[in-house]
Structure formats: C-alpha cells, structure tokens
Amino acid sequence: MPTLKAYRQELGRQLNDIVIGTTTAAGTVATIIDTTLLKSSLLSAQNYIGNIIYPTTLAVARRVATYAPTTGTLTSDQDWASAPGTSAEYELHRLLTPAEKNACINTVLRNMAYRSEALLTLVTDGDMETSGVTNWTASSATLTKSTTAANVFRGIRSLRVANSGANGYAGSVAVNVVPNDAYEVIAAAQVASGTARLRIWDNTNSVEIAAIDSSERDWVLSYKAFTIPATCRALVLRLQGVEATADVYWDHVSLLPTQRNWYALPSWIIEPGQVEDVWFYPLGHSFSTDLFYANDTAGYPWQGWKVQPNATAQTPFSVVLDGNQVNVGWLEVFARRVYDELSVDTDAAVAKLDYVVSGALYHAYKRLAANQSNSVDRKLYEQQALIAERKYMAWRRAMEAPPRTVIQPPVFGVGKVR
User: Fold this and answer.
1) Vertex 293, ends 290 and 295: CA angle to 5°?
2) HSE (CB half, 13 Å, CA atoms) of 193?
3) How far apart are CA 323 and CA 318, in angstroms?
4) Taking a C-beta distance cutoff of 8 angstroms, is the pair 141, 170 a contact?
5) How far from 267 is each of 71, 128, 264, 307, CA to CA, in Å?
6) Residue 348: DSSP 8-state
C-alpha cells in the first residue's frame, strides 16, 4: 500500500518540485551533508536558499539558510531536535511545503471511497483495520499491526502479539454486557510460535469466563458460546500467547449477543446509501473442540435487511435483519467507506498511487495559482490545473466501478460465494 511519503514524493516529481537525497555524513542539528547530490562546482551558494528541507526521519521541515556547494552542506534556519545523521533520507521542496503537498493528498482521499467489508462486532477494532494499536492494551507483549498478506485473515491488517513474558496478551476495550445473557465469540488466530489462547475475561470480577487454546500455524477460528455471569457488567477479550516466546497474529474478532437481529453499524457509515449488502459467513468444519478451519466457509447474502437511522447516536445507523441466523457464524456489511486522512509518513492507504496523485496534482496547481500575484503566472498555473483535472476525472471514471451485485440464494440453499 502506498504511504503518505510515497504519495507526496510522487506528487513532488510530477510537479517538478522535489529533490530526494541521502546524507553522506552525520551533520549537526542545523546541517545536512550530501557530497553525492549537493556537492558541485556548477552550483552557486544561492541555490536552494529559502527551499524547504525535510529530513524524513525527523519529519520536521525547516528553511535552508545557507548552502555550501563545495562541501555539499545545507544549513537550516532553525535547529532540529537532533541531527539527521548519516544515510538519512531528506527532501527539498521549492514551490509547496511538505505539509501543503500532504494537504492536497488528503483532500483527494477525503473525496474518495472504496468498498469495504465491515465486521459486525461489539469489540472496538475487532476487524483490526485501524492502523494503530491504541484500542488494545498490551501486557507482557509488544503489539503491532501487520499488513503482510500471509499474516492477514481478512481485510488489510491483523494484530501481532509478540510476547515479552509468559501469558502476554492484547486486551480489548471493555464491552458492557447484560448479566445472564447468551453471547458468542469468534476469533481468527495464526501462530508463528508457541500457543494462542483466546480468553473471555469478566472485567467486573477479574476472573476468566472461558478460554480456547490453539497452536496451529495456519489460520484457525476459535468459537465459544457462553453465558454472562450474574454479577458481570463488562467483559474484555484477551488475545494471549501462553509461552514467553509466543508470537501470534489475531484477526476478525466477533463478539455478539446470541440470536439478535439488530446491530449498530460502524461509525464511519454516515449515510444509509453507503451500505450495499449484508453477508453471513457460517463456520466450516471443526477439527477440535471449539476450533474450526478458517478457510473452510462460504458466505452468502442475508435475505432481507434494512438500515435504521438514529441521527443523534454515536453510531448514527444500525442494520436490522429479517429473521435470526440459524447457523453459527459471523456477519459482515459491505459498504462504501471514505478513506481516512493520512497523518504521518508511514500511514498508508489502499488507494492507487497514480489515481491519488492525479487528483493531488490538480489541487496543488490550484494552490499555486492562488499564491501568484502575477496574473501571467497565475494563468499558467490555472491552465495546468485544468489539464490535471481532466486527467483526474479520467481516473475517476476508470476507477469508480458500478455497485457490487450478487446472486441471491434460493430459499433452500446457499447463494453465490463471494
């Protein structure tokens, strides 16, 4: 997936407004040294003065105050918190700052949508699609999100729990529950080393309700139907590794009350028209107690559903299903999701790089036109903006596919497998 840095650097190339280099010496808190690219007998000391210098490892922009072509040294107008160091990547910008280029990129992303699968679950970030790990609490483990295809069950991310001690885990945000009610939990786990343990934890009384162990190297699903204890008001799911060296990937954690037909939709669904379909995925074959083959299931569209608004709620829409599920499994909503803004250079999006940059180029030229006091220069940038806009609209027509269609299943069987 392209990162914010990749989008920005490609935008800079197409604007002819970026120099990307690597330092060849440590420098200081106010200098960078690059004898490969910046050292030259052909350049004057006035080159690069006033340019924006942006060491990507520091992610802080400064203006170039002085330039020494004989040594390949740039001096910034303000100190950085630390020296960029040797072999550090840096960018030079002349027309637009890195922040302005990033803003052009995010303007495009805010106006783009992609078809997303949303797991219906009471667990915050249960589908692991949030880029960070702030919704999970680490205990004796290091938590990271993985985008490596082999370590992701569904979607584009999974949660890696790498233990630093025995019984390390990632704890979910506490879920408020109803005492004595029946619930079901499903979680996908892939063990790199050690043993994975899904623990259902009574957060009110600090006691375990149930646990399921797995040591399989391929993806497996842990499933448990259980009843909330009479004095329990909140539970936490602990995605745990047993051994001190355990290393486990977790994904697709579904927690729902049994036989409910009303579910809150994700908060990013802000218009009912975003929802395209609801699918049900029954569990496949079981190979051990409470364990199922993860890739042994065929989903099908739910017969009959509607989106129910609740405009003043934290989650403004819910989905209401006709009837209840008769099999054990999980539910997913297919909806058009607006891209999140990218904040730091390592943030990434699944949006095609050339598509995003074509739109960002249009916004960049519009910014440049607005900054010009000279009418001739302003007109030139406006013309460039019109050319970029035509290319961007061509990309949009090519990329905006028609709504997803499915074959509805017969009453007695399963429909088209997605």
Assistant:
1) 145
2) 9
3) 15
4) yes
5) 54, 15, 9, 13
6) B
Helix H or strand E segment including 315:
none
170 beta partners: 138, 239
CA distance linking residue 411 with residue 335, whole number of Å: 24
Tally of CB atoms within 10 A around 298: 12
Q: How many CB atoms lie within 10 A of CB 59?
A: 12
Q: Comparing C-alpha atoms, which of 392, 352, 368, 372 is closest to residue 95? A: 368
d(CA 38, CA 47): 10
163 neighbors 141 (Cβ within 8 angstroms): yes
Please give the helix or strand (H or E) that residue 395 lies within, else none: helix 375-399
Pull the structure tokens for residue 78.
Answer: 């303000």
Give kind and range of the element (H or E) at residue 364.
helix 353-371
The answer to whether 112 touches 15, Cβ cutoff 8 Å, is no
256 touches 297 (CB < 8 A): no
Taking each continuous run of H as one helix and of E as one strand, the counts in the chain are 4, 27
CB atoms under 10 Å from CB of 322, counted, come to 10
189 within 8 A of 223, measured Cβ to Cβ? no
pLDDT tens by residue, 365-390: 999 999 998 999 999 999 999 999 99
- pLDDT, one tens digit per residue, over 217-226 is 999 999 999 9
Q: Rounded mean pLDDT of the chain? A: 91
> Is 401 exposed, middle or buried, given 0-12, 13-18 or 19+ CB atoms closer than 10 A?
exposed
The pair of three-digit structure tokens given for residue 226, joined into one six-digit string: 């259980």
DSSP, collapsed to helix, strand or coil, labels residue 262 as strand
